[in-house]
Every structure is written in structure tokens, then in C-alpha cells.
Amino acid sequence: MDLFLQQTVNAFALGGTYALLALGLAVVFSIMGLINFAHGELMTISGYVLMYCGLAGLPFAISVALAISAAVVAAVLMERIAFRPVRNASGATMLVTSFAVAMILQVLFQNLISARSQAVLLPQFLSDSIRFGGLIIGINKIGAIVTTVVMLIFLDWFMKHQKAGIAMRASAEDFSVARLMGIRANTVIAGAFALSGLLAGVAAVLWVSQRASVDPLMGFTPVLKAFIAAILGGLGSLRGAVAGGFLLGAIEIYLAAFLPQELQEFRDPIGLCLVVIVLLFRPNGLIPSAALKAEKV
Amino acid sequence: MAPLLSVQSFHVHYGPVQAVRGIDFEIREGEIIALLGANGAGKSSTMNALVGLVPVASGKVVFDGRDITHNAPETLAPAGLTLSPEGRRVFGTLSVAENLMMGAYGIRDKTAIAAAWDRVYSLFPILHERRDQFAGTLSGGQQQMLAVARALMSGPRLLLLDEPSLGLAPKIVEQVFELILLLRDQGVTLAVVEQNVAMALEVADRGYLMAGGQFVVSGTTGELAHSDALHSAYLGAD
Ligand SMILES: Nc1ncnc2c1ncn2[C@@H]1O[C@H](COP(=O)(O)OP(=O)(O)OP(=O)(O)O)[C@@H](O)[C@H]1O
Ligand SMILES: [Mg+2]
């Protein structure tokens, strides 16, 4: 029982990070139909900022703020430089553009920083843990879960109670009509990227806090997972992204913990099979996006 | 007096498809204009291109003395021109009140927005009653009311309505046309695309009949009602 509870905490911590990343992908996809594979490189940028801030001896809170801000700025620049010129192109063109952006950034990290993994100095308290009865839970896990919950509450509030958030939902449902209301295309898309950058930055801090290292390809795996989570939840649906993130996190953690030793090798394929089975029963994902039906002018 | 909207040799293309092929027309302040024509005549293309949703291939559009031919859609609602598009296209996952709030998105003037809320809720008490409901759960007629109300939130001087009576029960259709007359009395100029020719001719001052992307007849609604072209257009012959 304790082992199960322990793993449940782990599942929430990992699933929460996937959820934040999947949300970042979904926010951008819902508005401009782009699956931004360079989302992972936003994470990597945050990771490197954390590393340099650690080397410079900055207080952790300031490092975190800088790392997250860096991802936001990078996301907005990415949109302005790489995605705006292909905004009206096909989904395939935008997808290839995002791969190109990801690869360019990876090469830059490899050549300007280091091809190898670098240690990130983290405050001691992150590796402490707290006892709850029979459970021993790392501070970094608690931090990840609390941060995820705070971010989800913030995002929900923003989307429901802020004019800019409501405009994003309107644009996601029917971009042309949203523009007709006076919602500026450039502003709402830049806003979506900024939000995705914020989510990637926060996810990066959580990710690095569990691993204390950063490398040029750091963002690749988590964003691939987040992409799977977004599809599992229903591509373009924000609630779906959250549900998919937590479900994928749970699948991975429980398989790692409870699959017999002989089968551990097949953990990832088995996990993906479970995802496919869910999609067989719910082809549009757990919580399909409402914009599926919305047509374009 | 200069017309509120003037459109000259207006063309709209979708790749090789020439949907609108050189039309000219004017709308004067306080008028109700009907734009008629069979399916595929180019009516929606005209409306959508006027507000920038599809590009204008060539021609010139002047609204309120300003050239708006190639303006982005988001600049037009604040300037006083908006469209309630074909098929209503309310934001189904937003509440009624959020839809209305979006209608006023481009407007800065707080008192104008407050006045728009009052006007819209007094025109459509049902929307006030249902303000927290998702727009997608409204009936077709209520969604049409919401689409018009949303357009009114920006306080337009010229309101374009693309098939506002489409798919509505006859009783509701009548309400829509009453609303059009009421809005005109409130000082809104209107251009209405309609399949419901009889109704459109009843409320409009002037009309244009479109076929194959061009105007085949235009004139007062009395003149149009008696034209052979109008009758043949709706029998499917060009
Ligand atoms: N997005 C588009 N791409 C290509 N062709 C289009 C597009 N929209 C409309 N058309 C074509 O342009 C022509 C005019 O269409 P439009 O929608 O303007 O007609 P309409 O008069 O509004 O018809 P309806 O009464 O059916 O609404 C038609 O031949 C149509 O097939
Ligand atoms: Mg039409």
C-alpha cells in the first residue's frame, strides 16, 4: 500500500509536468493549428538559464524567475521570427518549420554551450524529503505537484475571467470571427506563444529539479511525451491536455513500479499500447476539442 | 451627402474561382439594402471580403470616407462596420455573456460598451436570462439573436447580415425582420443577404440581385419585385 501511495505521488509529479507541457502545445495548436515541436527547446533554454544562474550564485527564486522569463521571451521571439511568416501555410509547412527551429536551437546549444550534459546547481532543500507516516516524499516532488496545481488554477482563472483569456478561447473556436470582433490576430497568437513559453519554463524548472542536469536534447523526450499526452487528451483541448498528461504520467510510473522485472524492457511499448487502446475507444481523445467542428471562412 | 459605403469594381477570387466579378454599389446612411441571389451567386463572398475575412482581388471600398479595401478584419468593428456571418457562428463554448463581451472587444470607450450591454439586453431579454449558459446550448433562433446582438456590441453604423433567417422557423423569421426594422429606427444602416426574397423585399429600401458574381438587376424593392430576372434567378435559370 505504501509503495502504491509512493508511486501515486510520483505519478502526479511526472503527470503534472507532462500536463503543463501538453497545455503549452495545446494552447498554440488550438489557435493556429501548429504543433510546435520546438516547445522542448524552450524548456532547454530555461534549463541553461537555471544552470548559468546557479554558476553565478544567484538566489534560487531569482534563477527560477529568470529561467521562466527566458522561455516566455524565447517563445514570443520564435513566433515572431519563425512562425509568423508561415502562419497561413499548411499544417505540414508549420510542422516542418517547428522541426527546423528545434534543430537549429539544438545545434546552437551543442556548439555554443556544450554537447554534453551539464550539472545544474540546485538548493540543498530540493533533495530533502518529508515523512508522512510510512511515506517518504521528496521536496522536489511536493514542489512539482504544488506548482502544477497553482499553474492549473492560474490558467483556469485566466481563460475564464480575463478578457484576454476569453479572447483566446474565442479565437481557438473560430479565428476569423474572433478577428471580426476586433481581436487582433498578431496579439492573440503572440499571447498564446507567451503562455506556452510560461508553461514550458515552469515545466523546465520542475524537470531540472528532479534531475539536476541539462543537455542540448533535454527538451526532446518530455515534449514528445507531452505530444502523446495532448493527443491522448484530445488535440487542441486544454482540459484534454491536462487529463492526457496525468494519465500518461500515471501509466509510465505504475508500469515502471509494478511491471514484472522480465517485462521492464518493454515498458515504453506497453505504455504506448495502452495509449493506443484508449484512442481506439476515444478516437478524438479523452476530452475532445470543441473546435473540431468549427469551419474556416 | 456622401454614401456611408461605396464599392467600386469589386472582385473576389478563390484561386481560379472568380466568385465576385466587378460589382459597384453604394449604401447611404439609414438605408436597408437587400442583396439577393441564388446559391453560389457570390453574396457571402461579397460580405466576407468587405470586412476583410477573404481578400479583395481588386476594386475599392470606401467606408465613412476612408479607404478600407485591404484593411484587416480586426480594424473594422472599431471603425463602425461589422458582419454577422452566414451560419451565425456564435462561440459555442463561450457563455452568452462572453460572446457579447467579445463583440465589444475592439471598443475602448467604456460608456459606449455599457450602453451596448443595456441596448442588447433590452432588445433581447432572453439573452440576459441565459447569459451564463453556453451559446452552443441555445436554440437556432436564440443563436441568431446572439449573433446579431454580438455584432451590435461594437455599436456599428453599418451592420452586414448574411442570411439571418437561414434555418429558422417562420415565426422566428418574422422576429428577425422586425428586428431589422427596429435597428434601422435606432439609426443603424443595414445590408442584408437573404434567401427569403419576399421578406427581404418587404423590409428593404433597395436591392441588388446577384448571379454569377455580378449584379443583374438593381433598384428599389418595388422595381425588383416586378423584374423577370428576379423570378428566373430563383427558378435556377440564369
Ligand atoms: N473558400 C472558398 N474557396 C473556393 N471557392 C469558394 C469559397 N467560398 C465560396 N466559393 C465559391 O464562390 C462562389 C460564390 O460563393 P458564395 O459563398 O459567395 O455564394 P453565396 O451567394 O453566398 O451562396 P449561398 O446562398 O449558398 O450562401 C461559389 O461558386 C462558391 O463555390
Ligand atoms: Mg452565402
TrEMBL record, chain A:
This protein's record includes keyword Phosphoprotein = no
* GO CC term, one of those recorded: plasma membrane
The top of its lineage is:
Bacteria, Pseudomonadati, Pseudomonadota, Alphaproteobacteria, Rhodobacterales
Q: Which GO terms describe its molecular function?
A: L-isoleucine transmembrane transporter activity; L-leucine transmembrane transporter activity; L-phenylalanine transmembrane transporter activity; L-valine transmembrane transporter activity
Spell out the InterPro entries in the cross-references: ABC_transp_permease, BCAA_transport_permease
What is the name attached to this protein's record?
Answer: Amino acid/amide ABC transporter membrane protein 1, HAAT family
Query: Could you tell me the keywords of this UniProt record?
Result: Amino-acid transport, Cell inner membrane, Cell membrane, Membrane, Transmembrane, Transmembrane helix, Transport
Localisation per UniProt entry: Cell membrane
Report the PANTHER family cross-referenced here: BRANCHED-CHAIN AMINO ACID TRANSPORT SYSTEM PERMEASE PROTEIN LIVH, HIGH-AFFINITY BRANCHED-CHAIN AMINO ACID TRANSPORT SYSTEM PERMEASE PROTEIN LIVH
The membrane-topology field of this record reads: Multi-pass membrane protein
TrEMBL record, chain B:
Could you confirm whether the keyword Nucleotide-binding appears in this record?
A: yes
The family line of this record is: Belongs to the ABC transporter superfamily.
One of the GO biological process terms: L-amino acid transport
GO MF = ATP binding; ATP hydrolysis activity; branched-chain amino acid transmembrane transporter activity
Pfam (any one): ABC_tran
Protein known as: Branched-chain amino acid transport system ATP-binding protein
- Residues annotated as domain ABC transporter: 5-237
User: What keywords were assigned to this record?
Assistant: Amino-acid transport, ATP-binding, Nucleotide-binding, Transport
